Amino acid sequence: MSFDYKRMMKFELNVGEKEKKQRMAAGAVLLFISIFTAKIALLLIGLILVATGYSGWCPAYSGFGKNTCETGGESTNS
Predict the structure, then answer these.
(1) Backbone dihedral region for residue 65 (phi beyond 0: left; psi -120 to 50: alpha; all else: beta)
(2) DSSP 23
(3) φ, ψ of residue 3 in degrees (nearest 5)
(4) Which residues contact 37 (CB under 8 A, 6 or more apart)?
(5) pLDDT value of residue 78
(6) CA distance 20 to 42
(7) How far apart, in whole angstroms, are the C-alpha atoms of residue 22 and residue 71?
(8) Is residue 10 within 8 Å of residue 66, measured between CB atoms?
(9) Residue 13's closest CA among 59, 51, 46?
(10) Which residues contact 74 (CB under 8 A, 6 or more apart)?
């Protein structure tokens, strides 16, 4: 399995609705925990999970060609 940098720059939606909810929930939990434990790593991971869950695009998924969207369509302006 190879990593494709050109495919990563297309910004196609590649995170499905179910996974978006899971990423947002896990990211929120990690952000909450990082507030009380003062762990920078938890904060960064939580921010990344919330950002990719909110946007619906994961750069690692793009690079590896993975797509969990049901339609697999490109991003549209809505």
Answers:
(1) left
(2) H
(3) -100, 125
(4) none
(5) 41
(6) 19
(7) 19
(8) no
(9) 59
(10) 10, 12, 13
- Amino acid identity of 30? L
In angstroms, the CA 29 to CA 47 distance is 11
Residue listed under structure tokens 């899971």: 22
Locate 38 and state its tokens. 């003062």
Residues 53 and 30: beta-carbon distance below 8 Å: no
Model pTM score: 0.77
Type of residue found at 78: S
DSSP secondary structure code for residue 75 in this structure: P
Backbone φ and ψ of 22, nearest 5°: -65, -40
Split at pLDDT 50, 70, 90, the class of 21 is: very high
Average pLDDT score over residue span 3-13: 72
- Do 50 and 24 form a contact (C-beta atoms < 8 A)? yes
